Amino acid sequence: MRTRAILFTALLGYAGIALSHGDVHERIRDLDHELAHHPKNAELLIKRGRLFLEDGHADEARDDFARAIKSAPKRIEALYHLAQAQLMLNQPQAALASVQRFLRKAGNDAARARGLVLSGEILSASDQPLAAAEAYLAAVKLSKEVKPDHVLYAADAFRSAGKTGKAMEVLDDGIARLGPLHVLAERALMLEMEEGRYESALQRVDRMLASRQRVPFLLYKKGLILKALTRSDESRRTFSAALREIDALPGSRKQIRAVENLRTSLLAELN
């Protein structure tokens, strides 16, 4: 399941209200003053609700969004954020009902895609990975500009539902639409290795190596694949090549924890 931080990053931008990094409490107090004079102003309620969410007060946020919906039923972004607040309050059924209302009223594909992503998050939180995967996939299909994160969400949800073949299909389709993005290729390679599809994984890792990105890490994975295929001599040569790549890195990069851990793993394989 995606973290709540990722959910906020994806959702807080929906209504087009820019949240700065100033004093949230001060801005809430300012809105308190304005709402004392205009208690049914949906714009002010939505602004304050989003600030409450940013500050971690989902219960106050939920109340503001509910008031905004009552005051201005056409402000459907309030439904969207109400679902977000309900999810944060561990009320997935209420959250799902709110986002479904949002989807019924959404006027364009971009809005529907955002709602479907939120639906996927709620369904994931409800331990319904297959339904979550279908929601994420529907969002990808609706989007004119596909977001790699949404492809990953769909693939991960299918994997959680035990549909690894479908997860691979989603990733490969994403790569076909977006190009050989490393983040998608890495996830596909991981799935192939988990499923024991070593010949396919070997072909993929060779394609990835052609981009010259993360070469030591990919050589390590290639070595593991060759080892699984009982091609021991090639495996050792590949591990050695990965060590040489590390040795060629600038000193500061060699000290990165991930690189140090990789060196340890490579030496363990060679020894």
Could you give a short description of this structure?
The protein is mainly alpha-helical and 271 residues long. It has 16 helices and no strands.
Word description of this protein:
With about 270 residues, the chain is mainly alpha-helical. The protein folds into 2 domains: about 1-125, Serine Threonine Protein Phosphatase 5, Tetratricopeptide repeat (Alpha Horseshoe), CATH 1.25.40; about 195-270, no CATH class. The chain is built from 16 helices and no strands. α5 packs antiparallel against α6 and α5 (about 75-90) packs parallel to α7.
Give the second-level CATH assignment, the architecture of the largest domain: Alpha Horseshoe
CATH class division of the largest domain: Mainly Alpha
Task: Please state roughly what percent of the residues sit in beta strands, choosing from under 5%, 5-15%, 15-25%, 25-35%, 35-45% or over 45%.
Answer: under 5%
Q: Gyration radius, to the nearest Å?
A: 23 Å
Low-confidence runs (pLDDT<50, min 5 residues)? 1-21
Q: For the residues shown, what is the average pLDDT? A: 90
Which of globular, elongated, flat, extended, rod-shaped describes the shape? elongated
Structural class: mainly alpha
Query: Into how many domains do the coordinates divide?
Result: 2
Number of helices: 16
Number of DSSP-assigned strands: 0
Write the SSE topology.
Blueprint: H1 4-11, H2 24-37, H3 42-54, H4 58-71, H5 77-88, H6 92-105, H7 109-125, H8 129-142, H9 148-160, H10 164-178, H11 182-194, H12 198-209, H13 215-228, H14 232-247, H15 251-254, H16 257-270
Helix pairs in contact: 1-5, 2-3, 3-4, 3-5, 4-5, 5-6, 5-7, 6-7, 7-8, 8-9, 9-10, 10-11, 11-12, 12-13, 13-14, 14-16
